[in-house]
Fold this sequence. Notes:
Low-confidence stretches: 1-7, 27-31, 35-86
Helix content: 10-25%
Order of helices and strands: HHEEEEEEEEEEEE
Strand content: 25-35%
Radius of gyration: 33 Å
Number of strands: 12
Mean pLDDT: 72
CATH class of the largest domain: Mainly Beta
CATH architecture of the largest domain: Sandwich
Largest sheet: 6 strands, mixed
Amino acid sequence: MIMRVKARNIKSSFWAIAAIASLFTGVASVAGLNPVRVLASEWGHTIADANHHSMPSAHDGHESHSSPGHGNANHDHGGANHGHAGHHGSLDVMDPERVPAVTLIVQPDSRSGWNVEVQTENFTFAPERVNQENLPNEGHGHLYVDGEKIARLYGNWYHISHLEPGTREVKVSLHANGHETWTYEGEAIAHTVTVNVPALDE
């Protein structure tokens, strides 16, 4: 008796589905649509919408950092070279009596390139704590040529092997261990100098 009831229910469901499908086919045909294509299209949109809402977009905002221990400066591959100079934000120095200062000196090397000296006050280079907790008045420097970052500085000296002929702007800025720019009263602690690079035939 139970089996007959189940069979009857299944049969009724089948005929109900068949009637709905027939009605849909008739309406689609009157509208000049292919019922199979319509069903396939709707199914595809349903799957696409489900994927769109269930897959969050990924944002890769990580800057490439070099490890300390290879001379006075390490180069970043990417990062600020592609317009990310302000990616890490800033930290304002709160103690007016301990504001760091930086002076940049660029001189031609007797053999080739340019020697860069970074003189600092109230600031300590701490390459051993890069990417770690920020501590007052310590960190590293960033070196720029014409607004493009060319190196991360872990010490007071750096050698630029080549500068294009013409008037170049060389800048150094001071940064915390977490790469934030040290600022005082909203101004970045940095120094920029202009270097006149002679043409190769001079």
